[in-house]
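Obj.: predict assembly geometry.
Materials: sequence records (below).
Method: joint structure prediction, all chains together.
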Amino acid sequence: MRRPPIGVLVVAAAVLYPAVHAIGIGPSLGGLVTILFFTLLAVGLNIVVGYAGILHLGYAAFFGVGAYAAGILTTPSHPFGWPFWLALPVGGAAGALLGLVFSAPLLRLRGDYLAIVTLGLGEILQVVLINLPGVTRGNSGLSPIGAPRLLGYELDQRYPAFWYYFVLALLLLAVAVSRAVERSRFGRAWVAIRENELAADCMGVNPVRAKLLAFVLSAVVAGVAGAAYGSFAGGLYPTAFTFNISATLLCMVILGGMGNPAGVVLGAVLLAGFDRVVAPFLTEQAGRLLPGGGGGSWRIFLEFHNYRFLLYGIALVILMRIRPQGLLPSAEMREELLEREEAASAAGAPA
Amino acid sequence: MSLANLSLRGVTKRFGGLTAVSSVDLDVAEGSIAAIIGPNGAGKTTLFNLITGVYAPSEGSISFEARDVRRALDRRAIELGTSVAAGCALLGVAIAAGVPAFEALVSGYRYAEPFAWGAGLGRALSAFGERAVGVVLGALAGTAVGAGGYAVTWRRGRVRPHLLARQGFGRTFQNIRLFKDMSVLGNVLVGLHPRLEAGFWASLLRLPSQRREEAGARAEATGLLEFVGLADRRDALAKNLPYGDQRRLEIARALALRPKVLLLDEPTSGMNPNETQALTRLIGEIRERFRVTVVLIEHHMKVVMGISERVTVLDHGAKIAEGTPAEVSAHPAVIEAYLGKGDEDVE
Amino acid sequence: MRLRSLGGSARLRRALGLALLLTAATFLLDTPASADQGPGAPVRLGAVEELLQYLLIGIARGAVFSLIALGYTMVYGIIELINFAHGDLYMLGAFMALSVVACCGGESLSGGAAAGAIALAFLVSTAFTAGVNFGVERLAYRPLRNAPPLAPLLTAIGMSFIFQNLGLFWGGLPIAGMGSQAAAPKSFPDLLPTVNLVQALGIPSGLSFTTKDLFVIATAAPLMVGLTLFVRFTRLGKAMRATAQNRMAAQVVGINADRVIAATFLIGGGLAGAGAVINGLYNNTIVFDMGYNAGLMAFTAAVLGGIGSIPGAMLGGFFIGIVSSFSDWQLATQWTPAVVFGLLILVLIFRPQGLLGRETGEKA
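Observations (raw structure tokens):
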């Protein structure tokens, strides 16, 4: 039986949404662009976490490196003044380079140590971004960042429809790349080292090289996303690349279903959707119901984005307990479920 | 006896104070079936791990087709180590003077004004010059850290099973190590991985050449599954196979490497007599069909006596006897080594 | 070897050698030589005195790191879990301590009342963090005992989020000591007398070693000694060591592994609580996201000492304290996290078994 083309429907809905929004329904396009950026990053992170099974806790660093590399090249406060379209691939390359340089010596570490090292890497980058004001402008931020030019238009935030379609296109590209590599021998090598590294090694798979490929590929996605994000946001601040971002992305990947881009998209849309759509809505409603927010320090309980990490944490803990494969598990998991059904029906069938 | 194509000389492996394998010599003739037997903890699996590169021997050498299997690896390591050291040296220079050089480069730039690049580059170069000592120190420190780090990690993980697998060593594991959440076919396809050539970009774009190769690989893997009798379960998940089938799948996966030497670690353990018999036959067929040298660790004496040409007996890590099955089973040291263990394995 | 080795002297020498090397390295890094104004050093110090001063700061800081690192190392030693939430547990302990002290009267306390409040804070905060850690182990980690290794780690990360968010909300409660801004740093009442012992003893030096510093060491040291004695000589302590070495074998000889693991979480949690009180009284400021950094520092300390080794975690804590203090001094405060994490990465690459650990054979 063919799977109903849910993917096609989702993509069609996403493509058509701006038209719907044009008649005044639903959340703003600008807000959705942020969600799309998160989704794009989550799909990139999935390559390293979902496929290769490396718990990467410093993904925001790669996002940041791409953003700053492209930002420095395009901002008028530095003399380079590159066009955005040239800086975009440089962002990806910068991410790849960082991934290569820093992960090469580390990939032989055991899983949990590796996780901590990626975390440390993210922290180091954060510190570097803050403390090199001559290059990054430190805490005061690198701003403005050059916007892409197309047909004589300067496409900054005033054109949310452009950004919506642009990031959507990047996202679809990232999903297509993930899918293609997943089905190739490289994808099989990733799953093999994730499942049993020693056995994969003995079958001629070089674990270090396979992990490096996953690391670098996901770093490219992060770098490109960063380059685009800087231009969309119009300015870069070190606080945009903290552990909180890495952690949020990780939650998206795990909630959605490690190893399945569709699941990851679902996870990202759910979590980022809560953050950008549901929480502001609830906060607004609460503000309307309780003018003055109950006064004083109680207000924090009525600003719903403050529940973000509580929710992420609870989701992680519960998920690990009852459904570690995530909401939409990967193809292998589906096959397993299918097979159980078959076995059950075979057992139940009359002889 | 024909020329040995796998030969171990004085191979020793120590873990801390424990000597797991001590000074073992072993010759396996091309195309033969050799068995390694011995009580539990005799070092049989450790020996397999040494042959397949999971461990590096503490002493001794292993050669295959008259070449030391390690030498090629060491050359590769030197090449890679050099490039790592060079990269680290660059990084050291960047840390020592990169930021001041960058600042010198862009200094004097005014917001949105044209910029004199020539002068900027000159300033950047002189910034390097001013910090010549730091730059040299950075480069040296980078080289040292890079080379040292590479040497340390290399020494720790200098064993590279995947390189040996590519040289023709296929193996199975005592405690089955399948890719449990992969399909049966997928498991065999992993074994084909080193022989597939499609590059990254070809895979990304799903070029015709890559698709052809994938289709060929699937056909070959299916053929191997047919050979071991698992073709009808090819889409099942490996972990859902019954125990005996899992062992067969491990063999099919190892055969996908087109090994010259197939190492089977207790292939019949946990099997009932019927399955054991079928597997014994399968091993014979494997040798005929794939012209492969087989080394097996086995507890079932019937299997060992039935198919192996030479038997090596290990006890406490040392070789205590060697010969044809008949010679070995009459050897007093062997009988003694097995005596304490009871007779359930020595039928 | 886990939870057992007090370290051979050769290993200790190597560790000391590395410490010296790192110290030398921090000196070599070029910093503008003019701009060193040590915090709270009114009298200009000589080079040696300055070194001593920062050494003292590092030791005081390191005592707290050690207490947190013990929680990491004990849990890792027994169930091989990086308890990611441990730093945030420490933060919760600090909030509990602040609440207790503030309810008792806060800044206005003095003399015996202050001492009583401090004692109460120790009691309540330690019991609180121990209980929370115990409960979390029971509810979140125990069901995952046979799950793939990354599942408990992810659960721990989830617990870390939950704790941190609870800390944020705690700061927003309209209770004493929390102020009006939930996310803002809270000031912890300064209940300890600050008498410079160097001057009080009439030593002619600009060094500062206050009663506060003494307090840190005088409270942390007995805890560490007590823990060491406990692990060495009591039945439960021996059971812990046995379980850490080989859980299966320990169960075979009749050790209830679940109980031992629960006890480990209890003790580790309690030490974090004690560390939190000490830190609050010493630094006088706490904030809801302080657990993240403190946790990473302490984890680095545990790795440095050889994760799983109790004396290693103690030494590692002091070592990290000193390294961070020297980095504050020679580089700049804002570079210190990068220095410590860089150190962590280097140690993991070159000596993953830690400075005091021994290499172990891996089983294929």
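Conclusions so far: Chain C has one domain: 46-363.
To do: check interface contacts against the pulldown list.
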